[in-house]
């Protein structure tokens, strides 16, 4: 975990007992992934937001966790989002996916969840609880809980591509005036050859990279137009939307748009 002030905590595990503990943890985490894969009759959803950076050496394990969740849970109501924050960009490597808007979103969670600081890697599940991004066991438990909790609200999204624009229509049943619609245009996968900073020389793989973020009044005109990036490909991108309480960050509904 790396905070805004950028400090390093190193834990050395020595001896047979440490090896045994590591083995048991690995076994538990594999079992947890299998449990998510085999869950049936899910009534809920899980919006998983990862705050990460190519400039942070603690982040690749969290990126890999998100990738494994995506790979092994294709048919679940899971909405995975990787926000590349920009406060690592002055540490020797400029993350090409970073945006200050994503840092601002993370700082909003600092306020909502009453945290002392922002850090990477961080995962927030359904806007209600946060974890160190590489804490696989805790993250999977939170996802399982979200999938099992029924929501009374629903969200419908549709997207029509026209040139370099995406016309989005939406409808959120059960949303009140204290909620807003958050839209994220997501690139499903990406690769980067890092040539500076803490991850110098590494080839990093990313999934569900947020390329654009918009907050919309869900009770307004029910339509909005998004500009598409130059490298947009219908088969490589998706649009994720969710309804979020502006008071505490709790997410009450989520959906993935059908792009036409």
Structure description:
The structure is a single chain. This protein has a single domain, classed as Sandwich (Immunoglobulin-like), CATH 2.60.40. Helices cover 24% and strands 37% of the residues. The chain is built from four helices and 14 strands. Strand 12 (237-245) and strand 13 (251-256) form a beta hairpin. The chain is globular. The protein starts with a strand and ends with a strand. InterPro entries: DUF1223, Thioredoxin-like_sf. It comes from Chitinophaga agrisoli. This is DUF1223 domain-containing protein.
Note the topology.
Elements: E1 2-3, H1 16-38, E2 46-52, H2 60-72, E3 78-84, H3 100-112, E4 119-120, E5 122-125, E6 129-132, H4 136-148, E7 154-162, E8 165-173, E9 179-193, E10 203-216, E11 223-227, E12 237-245, E13 251-256, E14 258-259
Parallel strand pairs: 2-3, 7-14
Antiparallel strand pairs: 1-4, 2-5, 5-6, 7-8, 8-11, 9-10, 9-12, 12-13
Protein name: DUF1223 domain-containing protein
Pfam families: DUF1223
Q: What's the short version?
A:
This protein is an alpha+beta fold. Helices cover 24% and strands 37% of the residues. It is globular and about 45 Å long.
